[in-house]
Every structure is written in C-alpha cells, then in structure tokens.
Amino acid sequence: MLELRLVQGSLLKKVLDAIKELVKDANFDCSTTGFSLQAMDSSHVALVSLLLRAEGFEHYRCDRNLSMGMNLDNMAKMLKCSGNDDIITIKADDGSDSVTFMFESPTQDKISDFEMKLMDIDSEHLGIPEAEYHAIIRMPSAEFAKICRDLASIGDTVVISVSKEGVKFSTRGDIGAANVVLRQNTTVDKPEEATIIEMNEPVSLTFALRYMNSFTKATPLSNIVTISLSSELPVVVEYKIAEMGYIRFYLAPKIEE
Amino acid sequence: GPKQSTITRFFNKI
Questions:
Q1: Is A240 in contact with A224 (CB distance < 8 Å)?
Q2: DSSP codes, A61-107
Q3: CB proximity list for A160: less than 8 A, separation 6 or greater
Q4: Distance of CA A201 to the CA centre of its chain
Q5: Do A255 and B6 touch (CB under 8 A)?
Q6: pLDDT score of A124
Q7: In terms of CA atoms, which chain A residue is nearest residue B2?
Q8: ipTM score of the complex?
Q9: Nearest to A88 by CA among A72, A100, A98, A74
Q10: Residue A114 above 80 pLDDT?
Q11: Looking at residues A43-72, what average pLDDT do you find?
C-alpha cells in the first residue's frame, strides 16, 4: 500500500513540467527514503534524477518498495486537472496496475480522484559516482535560462569555460557568434541573486543547447541553479526543491574524437 | 567538430 500526501501539490506539477520534455516514460520508485525517479532521454545523452524525500510529505506511507511505470505526458494531463492550491495524494495498492491521484481543495469542498493506468517500463538504473568537480557555479536560475535561450537563437552548442576571470558561455552559428561572461557577484540585495564561482581547476566543455534549454523547464522550482563541471564528466545542472529534495540533470559533453 | 557522447559512457549500469 502506498499513500503520499503532498500539501503543496503544485510542486508535483512543476516537477512534471520540468522533465516531461526530456523523458516520455519513466519508473517512479517509492521507498522509505522517498519518491524518486531516474531516467535517460531516448538518445541516452541526458539523465534526470529526482528525489522528493519522505519527510517533505505531510503523510508518507510506503509499505514496501514499489516501482511505478508512468507515461509522463499522461501523468501531466491528470495533474493539470488539479487546482493550483490543491493538496495532492498519490495512492496505489500493492500489485495494482493503476495509480490514483486525489486532489483536495484547500477548503476541502472539492475532492476529485483520477486513476491512471501504469505501464511496464524496462529501464536501466545507472550508478552515479561521487565526483570532485573542477568548477561549481551557483547562479540565479532565471539568468541561466535566459543565457541558454539567447545562445540557442545563435548556435546549437554552448562552450562553458571557467577560468579566474569567471564563467564564459559561448556559441557560434551561421549568423555569427556570442559570448556571455559572468563574474562572481556576491554584493546583491538577496542571496538568491548572487553568482558564486568556485573553481579548483580551469575547465572548458561543450554541450548541446537543446538539452540545456530543456533542463531550464525546471526554473519555476528554484530561484537558484547549480552547475558542476569536470573535464572528465557530464555536467550536473541541479535545481533544489525547497525542503524536499532536488532535480538533477546530467548532460554528456561533446568530445573531440 | 566534437561528437556527442552518451551518459552510459561515463556512468555504469547497476
């Protein structure tokens, strides 16, 4: 038996909006730790890892580990039927081939339930090694989204370079080229407006902007994004989900063969 | 130009 009650139901809608462009079908795993998901896009270029910790739910009951295969477009369709302030409860019986989303209005005067069929998904689970990153950039998520959007209008790939001078986002395309340099800036009114660049070693990596832009669909989840770079590894773009967990996107670099 | 690598090149199946 599974019963997860999330008072801030809109969070779940935002999570779905953040990943449904990248991944079509995925297994949601439920354990005593929390509600999680790991999935790759169909080309195996990007991976998303989501964790909503059990403590973040008002009520969390998961009698045994359960993996529920869902089509994310269908799940998003169902969640769209909830009100923005609704409490969402996810329910499933052991061995059931469906999951139920229950929506309660804040004043309890409207209660709906939507049942969705589950599906069998053959998915590989990958071990993500602990890593020492050459550089970690913490910046306003809206600024990162703007840079990715702006550069994608010029080129298809972005080179992200971190040096003593700051972090540079560069692209090149048929109509020209663009460079955006950000310097560390901690003299801001609010901590979430700061740009913090932690560099252990200079690093420069090339990525497909299409994926970066897809990751920025998570912007409504957090004011801050953290970008971790290492020359040997996929970049990690992380959005923290307030008091609940995180959504992390991993993107494999473009490599000179 | 540089070629797109895949996630499975870096992370192993468990």
A1: yes
A2: EESS-EEEEEEHHHHHHHHTTS-TT-EEEEEE-TT-SEEEEEEE-TT
A3: A167, A168, A169, A204, A205, A206, A207, A227, A229, A235
A4: 26
A5: no
A6: 81
A7: A256
A8: 0.97
A9: A100
A10: yes
A11: 97
List the beta bridge partners of residue A67. A29
E strands, chain A, in order: 2-6, 25-30, 34-40, 46-53, 59-62, 66-71, 87-92, 98-104, 111-117, 126-127, 135-140, 157-163, 166-173, 176-182, 196-199, 203-208, 224-229, 235-241, 245-251, 254-255
Tell me which long-range contacts A139-142 makes (C-beta under 8 A, separation of at least 24).
Answer: A139/A182, A139/A194, A139/A195, A139/A196, A139/A224, A139/A225, A139/A227, A140/A192, A140/A193, A140/A194, A140/A195, A140/A223, A140/A224, A140/A225, A141/A216, A141/A218, A141/A219, A141/A222, A141/A223, A141/A224, A141/A225, A141/A239, A142/A219, A142/A223
Q: Do B11 and A43 touch (CB under 8 A)?
A: no
Nearest-neighbour CA in chain A from B8: distance (Å): 7
pLDDT of A74-86, one tens digit each? Answer: 999 999 999 999 9
Whether A126 sits inside 8 A of B7 (CB atoms) is: yes
